Amino acid sequence: GGTKKSKLTGISKLDDANFAGTAKSKDCTLIITEGDSAKSLAMSGLSVVGRDYYGVFPLKGKPLNVREASHKQIIGNDEIKNVVEIMGLKFGTKYDETNVKSLRYGHLMIMADQDHDGSHIKGLVINFIHHFWPSLLDVPGFLQQFITPIVKATKKKKSKTFFTIPEYENWKESTGNDAKGFNIKYYKGLGTSTSAEAKEYFSNLDLHEVHFRDLTSDVATPDEVRSDEFDSDDNMDIEPSSTAAPLKQVSGNELIEMAFSKKHVESRKTWLNNMAKDTYLNYSNAQKDGVKFSEFINKELILFSQADNQRSIPHIMDGFKPSQRKVLFSCFKRKLKAEIKVAQLAGYVSEHSAYHHGEASLNGTIVNMAQNFCGSNNINLLTPSGQFGTRRMGGKDAASPRYIFTKLENITRKIFHPDDDALLSYLNDDGLSIEPEFYMPVIPMALVNGSDGIGTGWSSSVPNFDPRIIIENIRRLINGEDMEKMSPHYHGFTGEVVEETGKKAGSYSVKGRIERTNDTTLLITELPIKKWTQDYKVFLEGLLTKDDKNKSAELDIKDFKENHTDTTVSFTITATKEKIDSFEKGKDGLYGKFKLGGSISTSNMNLFDDRGRIIKYSSPESILQTFYDLRLDFYCKRKEHLLKILRREMRMLSNKARFVEEVCSGDLVVSNRKRADILADLQERGYETFTKDDDNKSDGDESDEEDENVSDAELAKGYDYLLGMKIWSLTYEKAEQLRRELEEKKQAVKDLEATAPSAIWENDLDDILDALDEREIAMEAAEKEERKAQSKNKKRQAKKAASKKKGKKKKDEWNSSDEDSSEEEASDSDSEGAFAPKKKAPARKRAPYARKPAAKSNPKPKASTPVEKVDLADESDEELDLMARMKQKLHVSPAPKKKAPVPAPLDIGEDDDDEVESKSSSTSSAASKGRKRSSPRQGEIEVLDVDDNEEVPAAAATKASRPTAGAKKAAKKAPAAKKAPAAAAKKPAAKKKPAPKKKKMVVDLSDSDSEDDFNESKLGFDEDDDGSEDFAPPPPRARSGRSRRQVNYAMDEESDEDSDFSDFE
Questions:
Q1: CB-based contact 210:286 (threshold 8 Å)
Q2: Cα angle vertex 798, ends 797, 799, to 5°?
Q3: What CATH number is attached to the domain comprising 437?
Q4: How far apart are the C-alpha atoms of 194 and 185, rounded to whole Å?
Q5: Residue 490 lies in a domain
Q6: Which GO terms describe its biological process (predicted)?
Q7: What is the pLDDT of residues 910-948, one digit of tens each?
Q8: How far, CA to CA in Å, does 756 sit from each of 590, 746, 750, 874?
Q9: How many domains does the chain divide into?
């Protein structure tokens, strides 16, 4: 404990009173505040009363509940230690009015917000003092509270403050005009008050300082804990969540212990169920006589407990907690069909639904409503556009709300039907219409998405269930059949959920998936529900760590590998055969050893019902039965509402049709008449007025003349649907159209009258099933595409590895399979979609086409040295060096300047083998009229070059210029033809020289590779490539100075010229 010191040091944020710890300490007051902002308010107020007798110390959050904490927790809590030292308290000491003078402060004042959380902080401080020094609560005036306004009404220079919302509501009602003329300001916390207002508070301490009365004489009367008795339902599966006897007459001591002790859970449930309606603590009476501890517990702290349960326990109808309901209400109000940042949506929700808590919590609520990974929602109501979390970390890996977007899912409005909106009971917050008490979805979302929550006295845990099975059971109830038993179901879970026999009803065992693939390998492909991948990885890492107590023991596993994605699980574990054999023989086998088992229970399904009571439901069928009864009755209300709307539209159409007909016939004149005369004429003819209910308002303070003006305005507004019609509508055709529409409305009314409410429900169920089908088709398509991409990636990696291996073993050999794999890799990249970057495989990178050399006489090709094989699938430094060596080996000698026709090139991409032979024979025939060429040796590449400006026989020129079928397309993008010399222009067969075509590499097929292999695009280029990506590089001399010289290959299927290997020079 602490000791009485006149000066304390080392306690951060303490502003000590000047007389604390002195002879005047009994008159000093320590103000403990709710956070730093509240301390700033107190410090502003101390400028009025001075610092001699008042000290201030801020608390960090809510104090510890010492009644349920361990000794280690208590002595390790900085807040408790600081308060004890500042006050000079000693544990085990019994204080009275005499020895209280030994304390550094004679009074302890609590300064917290006037909201429910502020009441909880007051209660925790009371619990702290009562647990260790209960006698201090009998010392007159020792414990006090500083109350601040929660509402302030100002009119001109007069103001009135209210410390509770019910006080303000009662006053507003008493004014008779809804407090018109007053400026109303709500104080959401102490931080809302200004420094000037703080000085005003401390200038009127008698109004704001309230002391607690002594504890010994404090006894609660029966009327303080009365309420309506619980009405039991006929359904035996539903029971009130408390079975303890109602509290009658209890002391303040008992109430404090009941409110904060775990031993009195059932008593707290009864206490909350017995809460009277409109309960609140009236501080206007307490300011004089003080507050009894029993009054504070029964009339203020109970409101926090009730609010805590409402924030934590969902409703049976929509399965929502208030924050979720506010989010959905705001999305509906905004008609959120376009994506919006989560952070922006949180701000919109705060503004339009009066959310009074931190937006960080609201951001988390929005993210949770959009999550769709296994273990989260079976039906996410918001779209997760961005990283909203995965099963890897259970959603904790979600991105910042500033970076992710969301909108309403298409299925959301199928579940929360717009036709129900007008029938809901909406709440009101200071004149602002906010979310309803609860929504009426078509299916019970409390079962679809489940929930978990811990409140005061209650907790709730409802598993997820299959929406399709729920819909089937609703249809059975509609048809008067018995429901089928429902078991927990989580979308995407591939393990087992089995009801346990011989145990308490509603107990289910959950198993992941593990299999032994061989003697030393295990494969885990599923984890129990809500066991996240990252957590399980930590567990497996623990199996790889030796125990400190027995470091010589053999490890359970040797290693594990991870191959899972954000949606799937895949752990491959290796261990010795003996170890795996022992695991299988152990308790629960492999599932027990690797903790792949779990449990789900339906024994704690506590939900708020439509009357605001917390009810415990013993089975999901009992929840569905309660939902069915309420929802079917609501469908009856919806049918009546829709009929009312249709009949209203019928009357409006009838009036409009009659109006148009009378104007067209001249029976009713509306032009060149006074407004009042027209309105009177319409009234006399019996035309109905149609106005909105919220437009029918009048102020009681206005004069009779003003009332008449308002009445005239309302009358004109009521006839606006007639007088506001466009002139073009005043035709006989429009009247006939209106009559047709009227008949359609009449038929719609007849159809709806003949439709049973249950039939309307079944139509809505069909719409949900259609939406579920669409979602599942989209998900399956995405999963299929992912598997396809994974398969292609594995195949590509395997081929790449094989290519590298072959390249190292046989660098000097040509391997056609490597080139084939390069082509396949290139084609695979086109279908990877969003699963891999769309980039071409290395083999698909085409070198720039070689520049066309200056026209020369045709050189005779000379047999060249055999070319070493280059693997185009890899661009490593080793292979670039290989290309350089190949360049040195290549040597081309000029051919004799003997004229000869140009042989037709081998078309690799388009022509088959027969066509190649045909072209070869044609070329041989034409060559008889000109020069002959020498044949290259087997295994060598024949290189031909033709001078563009050389004279060529007409027949050969015509044949050589005739493009193949595949070349016509590429010819469109060929470079412009050069002008021929004058001598060439005289030739009649070559009046216009065609555009020079790209060079082509002609390969002798006498190599060991077959012609079929070569036709499979041996060089790694696509058959359908039309050469659209060709471009001309700078001249070779412009490349000097580069660290590595690049080897360029130029090839085109339709070229009638041969490469001269100029790129290697």
A1: yes
A2: 90
A3: 3.90.199.10
A4: 13
A5: no
A6: DNA topological change; resolution of meiotic recombination intermediates; sister chromatid segregation
A7: 444 444 344 444 444 444 444 444 444 444 444 444 344
A8: 55, 18, 12, 71
A9: 5
